[in-house]
Amino acid sequence: MKYTYLILLYLALSLILLFAELTHQQTLIYATKPLLLTVLSLWFYLNTKDWRTAFTTFVLLGLIFSIGGDTFMMFEESGDESTAIWFLLGLGCFLLTHIFYLLGFLKYPDRSKGFISKKLWLVLPFLLFYIGFNYYLRNDLGDLQIPVLVYSSVITLMALAALNLYSKKIAPKHFGWILGGVLLFMVSDICIALAKFKSHELVIPYPRVVIMTLYLLGQYWIAKGSIAANARH
Questions:
Q1: Cα separation of 26 and 12, whole Å?
Q2: pTM over 0.90, yes/no
Q3: Does residue 78 sit in helix, strand or coil?
Q4: Do the Cβ atoms of 113 and 164 come closer than 8 Å?
Q5: What are phi and psi of 122, to 5 degrees?
């Protein structure tokens, strides 16, 4: 992969942001957070522009919409009076991110039968977790019950689409990066939901640091695995 300087910049910005989250320096958060996925999107684009496929196009769109999600969620975390609006806008951007990732994984340039279609029972643990987690949150969601339900449905489908890549013509290492990134992204979203809706029952130590660490590593793995898988194919 080329353009290593962009990944070094992504790493540096990530460390600065995590420090800012840990020390509650809102100005520094404003200065760094929107840049992170901008840099990662540029790195992904430059590494895939010479062999563009529907797969990489949709993944790139997912990365780009993550910039909006990060920015809106940043304002939601600032304590502004209109936090509900910022949260919904951020949720909407990340919903589109997951839809684009889902479409990208489904459009991977290998039309052979996928792993999930061969082993349908693998859907069951995802379905059980989806039902159980939404049931656990139900009494604390208020007017956000339907948006959260839709969001969790899409991210579950996206994770299944990533798992479905396993039996396609993709190197195990590259598949591992993609699936690992997707699962980290999911866990990050789960932590957001717990911190927002269940803070009266559960306490996540340094929640913003935990959430952003999982999220930034997950996005990097998704991008890295997708670049490598596309180039190899």
A1: 18
A2: yes
A3: coil
A4: no
A5: -65, -20
